[in-house]
Amino acid sequence: MTSNRSRVTAVAAATALLASACSAGTPEDNTSSASTPPAQRATSPIDWNLPDAQRYHRLATYPVYLNRPAGEDPGAETVAEISTVTPDGNTVIYTDAAAKRIGFLDIRDPSEPTGLGVLSLAELGHADDQPTSVAAVGEYVLVVVDTTGAGAGGDFAHPSGRVDVVRVADRTRVHSIDLGGQPDSIAVSPDGSFAAIAMENQRDEEFTPGGAEEGDLPQPPTGFLQLLTLAGPPAAWTARKVDLDVEQARAAGLDTPQDLEPEYVSINSRGQVALTLQENNGIAVIDGKTGAVSSIFTAGAQAVDGVDTAEDGTLDQSGSIAALPREPDAIGWIGDDHLATANEGDWKGGTRGWTVFDAMTGEVVWDAGNSFEQLAVRTGLHIESRADSKGPEPEGLAIIEIGGRPTALVASERSNFVAAYDVSDPAAPVFRQILPTTPGPEGVLAIPARDLLIISSEADDAEERVRASVTVYGYGDAYAQAGGKPAFPSIVSGDLDGTPIGWGALGALSADPGAPDRLFTATDGAYGPARILGVDLSATPALIERELVVTEDGKPVTLDVEGIAARPDGFLLAVEGEDGAGSELVEVGTDGAITERVKLPADIAAELGGQGLEGVAVDGDQVWVALQRELKSDPQGVVRLGRYDRADESWQWFGYQLESTDAEGDWVGLSEIAVHDGALLVLERDKLNGPDARVKAIYRVDIPTEGGVSGTAAPKVLPKKLVRDLLPDLAATNGFVQEKVEGFAVAGNGHAYVVTDNDGVEDANGETVFLDLGTL
């Protein structure tokens, strides 16, 4: 690493370089990577800034483990899958298949959902019964129950189920109807006269039919539809079975017509029932009054270009998928003449988007192509580990009218968002907004009378403290003030030649020394190769508009970049290794090429684990670094700040006293360091998230005038002063408080900025929060 101070000073004056070609767009720009030609700046094809009156505002995120029975372990798995709401719009009822119960939430104040307890299915039948869907009807809730596994561990060849009619007021069952098979979804007709239940009779994924692959069809018995009459008192409600004609299904070109497995059901104003046959890649339309099957048609196949198809840790959107069956899951009516499907796929297909069909002819009038996955990429929600499977996996879907517009709401099971589209013209949907959720959004429930939207998420990971939740959104001006700030997305990427810059796992921030309204950030080891990204702060949301690939010997390299410091002649990267020996400072030139690597002193590295270098800042020839965790020989709770002198290549170390939470399994460490106004600003955080989060803060440490210790001698602990508690800022989004507050910088405009690391949407909900803290 160079020690020539005069060269640094001279180059600092030459701000035309602006530290990297990814910042300026001047003729001197020097960006060179496979995806970013010199002087090319990405632009956003989407206007993310809808007026308050035309958008959803996140009001609350309620982790459903808070609604557990007294005495239950808070770490026990509990989820929210499908939800319904009482006619007054005040009580949400959700299914919890993991805990084999249904739950109740009071949303009279949608900004403060309150748990009203649960009803175990053991009280209604057997401890192994599982709820699959719910639907409110008057003072009752219809609880659809799969009893196939009751008492015997499951018998796919002899499926069974029922629907229980439960009075909401006292949670007592007043009637029960045998369904003659294993049920999935339920829908109630708009006029309330009947309900329809998709009877899946699902396949055993571990069974191999003769002459077929494991988990393949046919696996009798076939599925069907049940129609429930809802006239009179509940005791008079009965079920009527509707069989689907095998020959009609065969003529439509369905895959295995002798074993249809209905998945999802929706009913239009005419009383027509639309039914997806996911494994058979089909759709059926049935007259709900007579039970006559009007039509069965194939959902068809779709080829998609411009998507990530390889699970290789690289955000590469140059792949294609051949024409695969759509295999739709959720379905909804757009008016009475068109159907929309979320094409999740099962084991043979899935096309990463959603489709609009003519309901009478089965003709495709619009398909999302790669645009749904591109939404995930632009907002940092692309899950690379699913690239070779079904990508974002659109699963849930609802069609509503909001703000005078017919609107499709499509949920991504893997990328954890719901996308809203104006479908006033079913042949030309228009994207409106993206709504973040906790992992595995499945239930999408609109409450039109209150302009509310309820999203229930089915993934629960207590060990990682990422919990299944019910998220509440409110539409329009009335909810704007209570809505989360900053609105999502707070940072997005632009497109280069029609392809969005892939990003995620942002663990570092630095000011651009040549542009007051720009920052630099970098992807960490969740993705490769390492890339330095330029962020335009003048855009709303902040816009990632450049990328610079880090190379060595002319080849892209993967680095776990945790800190970045931009200088007029390049960058310093704080790289965290798998162990202490892998932690190093890496100097990168304006062309992205590595010019030097500086290892930590061997005695320091030997006492570090996998949580080493985490932040870096430059003050003239002095380089300051933050180690995330304590050395093995240092006192518990004392972590180190290091000062590296580039002139004589010497290291000095100072102590920093961490906060403590006393929470089981928690630790507190450092994330970032910056030099500002003659002091060090240090970002400190715990490992907790959601309602458990306790320590997310910026502290000030005066730059010491005396020397520090060398080697592993006990360092002197520097006094610190709280500058900003970030918990209120993170909670203000009304989302799940993020764990990894990782990046921090003070830009040339005088504002401080913070960004959260979304872990590449692995073991996290994937939401990135980019905060403008104003002046400190």
TrEMBL record:
Residues 28-43 have a biased composition (Polar residues). Residues 1-24 form the signal peptide. Keywords: Signal. The keyword Transcription regulation does not apply. Residues 502-759 form the Phytase-like domain. The keyword NAD does not apply. PROSITE patterns: PROKAR_LIPOPROTEIN. Residues 23-46 are annotated as: Disordered. Residues 349-432 form the Choice-of-anchor I domain. This is Alkaline phosphatase.
